[in-house]
């Protein structure tokens, strides 16, 4: 395999990020290992061989999502070989991506989130920041990476909007609730304004005790600790608050396109998972609106 040529194809032709390029190269390396095991040349594998490769991945214990990405890498590799006229046709053309099992995400009820907030000792300086963190994630449905990247100037207090920089540096505006605004302002006025910024924390909204940007790990540990102290037995993470945000909107009848935009989902099919969360809600909708119910 000409890794340099394939890498250039991925970067220039497909416009992939460095992380995606590295993942695709690793995918083809796995295929190369399989080809060695079956004593075949990588460029001479057939569709049947690729089916055997997928079975091999399953036996190795790779998850469906990992397998789906590997299929994308393999397809890209053979398309590259066709483009370079190293093979006549791609054997991966009819190779199907494994059908992903869509697991329903864990969600928290509003009273459970209230219980988490009530466990905080608000006499501690860090508690005001942590309260604002929980309020903002839950009010805006942010990813943890989006939260720790928020800048002071990203919040428009007059219009009650937050400018969020999501995946691929794509920006979106999200409304922010009054409670989240209130606690963010309290944090800014009484804690954040007293802190000296380090180089990594310049302009960042939520700072650690050394004046730098918070880490993802800190936010994960904070939310897990608060859930444990509130007696919540669910597997809780920052993403749980994001799921809870989306679920509450969908259950209240919010338009899926609006929820998609607020979550920053590229496809509405990703957002549609929230329509499956509350069976009681769906049954009530059916009874209320269907003429035969």
Please tell me how large the radius of gyration is.
Answer: 24 Å
CATH homologous superfamily grouping of the largest domain: Intergrase catalytic core
For the record, the CATH class of the largest domain is Mainly Alpha
What's the tally of helices?
A: 13
CATH architecture of the largest domain, by name, is Orthogonal Bundle
Strand content: under 5%
Order of helix and strand elements from N to C terminus: HHHHHHHEEEHHHHHH
The low-pLDDT segments are none
- Count of beta strands: 3
Helical amount: 40-55%
Given the C-alpha coordinates, what overall shape results?
elongated
Q: Biggest sheet: strands side by side, in what order?
A: 1-2-3
How would you describe what is shown here?
The protein has a 3-stranded antiparallel beta sheet with strand order 1-2-3, with no helix packed on it. Helix 2 (18-37) packs across helix 4, helix 5 (110-118) crosses helix 9 (216-229) and helix 6 (125-140) runs antiparallel to helix 8 (178-190). 54% of the residues lie in helices and 4% in strands. It has 2 domains: 3-83, Orthogonal Bundle (DNA polymerase, domain 1); 110-286, Intergrase catalytic core (hpI Integrase, Chain A, Orthogonal Bundle), CATH 1.10.443.10. The radius of gyration is 24 Å and the shape is elongated. It has 13 helices and 3 strands; from the N terminus they run H-H-H-H-H-H-H-E-E-E-H-H-H-H-H-H. The termini are far apart. It is mainly α and 293 residues long.
């Amino acid at each position: 395999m000409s890794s340099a040529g394939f890498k250039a194809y991925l970067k220039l032709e497909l416009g992939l990020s460095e992380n995606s390029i590295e993942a695709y190269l690793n995918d083809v390396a796995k295929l190369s290992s399989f080809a060695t095991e079956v004593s075949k040349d990588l460029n001479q594998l057939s569709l049947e061989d690729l089916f055997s490769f997928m079975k091999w991945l399953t036996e190795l214990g790779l998850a469906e999502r990992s397998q789906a990405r590997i299929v994308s890498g393999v397809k890209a590799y053979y398309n590259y070989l066709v483009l370079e006229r190293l093979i006549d046709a791609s054997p991966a053309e009819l190779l199907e991506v494994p059908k992903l099992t869509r697991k329903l995400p864990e969600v928290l009820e509003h009273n459970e989130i209230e219980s988490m907030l009530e466990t905080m000792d608000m006499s501690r300086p860090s508690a005001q920041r942590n309260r604002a963190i929980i309020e903002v994630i839950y009010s805006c449905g942010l990813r943890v990476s989006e939260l720790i990247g928020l800048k002071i100037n990203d919040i428009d207090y007059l219009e009650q909007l937050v400018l969020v920089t999501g995946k691929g540096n794509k920006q979106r505006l999200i409304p922010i609730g009054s409670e989240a605004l209130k606690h963010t302002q309290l944090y800014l006025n009484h804690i954040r304004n007293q802190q000296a910024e380090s180089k990594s924390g310049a302009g960042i909204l939520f700072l650690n005790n050394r004046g730098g940007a918070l880490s993802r790990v800190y936010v994960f540990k904070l939310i897990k600790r608060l859930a444990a102290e509130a007696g919540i037995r669910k597997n809780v993470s920052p993403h749980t608050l994001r799921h809870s945000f989306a679920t509450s909107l969908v259950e209240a009848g919010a338009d899926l396109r609006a929820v998609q935009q607020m979550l920053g989902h590229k496809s509405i099919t990703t957002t549609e998972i929230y329509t499956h969360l509350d069976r009681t809600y769906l049954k009530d909708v059916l009874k209320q609106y269907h003429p035969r119910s």
